[in-house]
Amino acid sequence: MNKIRQRNKQVKFMMTEDEVKRLNENMAFAGVKNKEAYLRKMALNGHIINIDFEPLNRIAFLLANATNNINQIAKKANETNSIYKEDIEKLQAEVPMLWKQVAGAMREFRKF
Questions:
Q1: Selection from 92, 93, 102, 89 nearest residue 61 by Cα
Q2: What is the pLDDT of residue 34?
Q3: Neighbouring C-beta atoms of residue 72, cutoff 10 Å
Q4: How far apart are CA 33 and CA 68, in angstroms?
Q5: What's the confidence (pLDDT) of residue 2?
Q6: CA–CA distance, 12 with 7 (Å, rounded to integer)
Q7: What are the tens digits of pLDDT across the range 10-49?
Q8: Count of C-beta atoms within a 10 Å radius of residue 101
Q9: What span, in angstroms and rounded, lies between the C-alpha atoms of 78 and 83?
Q10: Quick one: which of 13, 18, 78, 98 has the most CB atoms within 10 Å?
Q11: Is-contact 27 33, C-beta < 8 A?
């Protein structure tokens, strides 16, 4: 008796040796032994995640500014044996902006 295949379309693609190694590692990690089933599942239901790192870049920028200001205040304090109130207030104003950026980035990354 000649059965008609439900899946009658073939899809082929080439991979490098390293890509095949990663494929096998991913299958082992997922606990899957059937390569055809794994590839079909990933092709139909897999997800590609693109992450926008701009929020982290902004945090890094703000953190670098805050660190710079702390270093300048420390240098001034060492040179003059005093700390200026304006310097501390400027630094205190930057910290909430930094935390706001961190909170926004965390919200974005929780979506994944």
A1: 102
A2: 95
A3: 13
A4: 53
A5: 63
A6: 14
A7: 999 999 999 999 999 999 998 999 999 999 999 999 887 7
A8: 19
A9: 9
A10: 98
A11: yes
More confident residue, 95 or 37: 37
Q: What percent of the chain has pLDDT over 90?
A: 32
87 in Cβ contact with 69 (< 8 Å): yes
Q: Contact, 91 vs 49, CB < 8 A? A: no
Q: In sequence order, what DSSP letters do the residues of the chain get, joined into one string?
A: --PPPS----------HHHHHHHHHHHHHHT---HHHHHHHHHHH--------HHHHHHHHHHHHHHHHHHHHHHHHHHHS---HHHHHHHHHHHHHHHHHHHHHHHHHHT-
Tokens representing 58 are 């902004």
Residue 7: how many other CB atoms lie within 10 Å: 8
User: Residue 25 corresponds to which tokens in the numbers above?
Assistant: 């590692």
Instruction: Compute the chain's Rg from CA coordinates.
Output: 27
Q: Read off the pTM.
A: 0.45
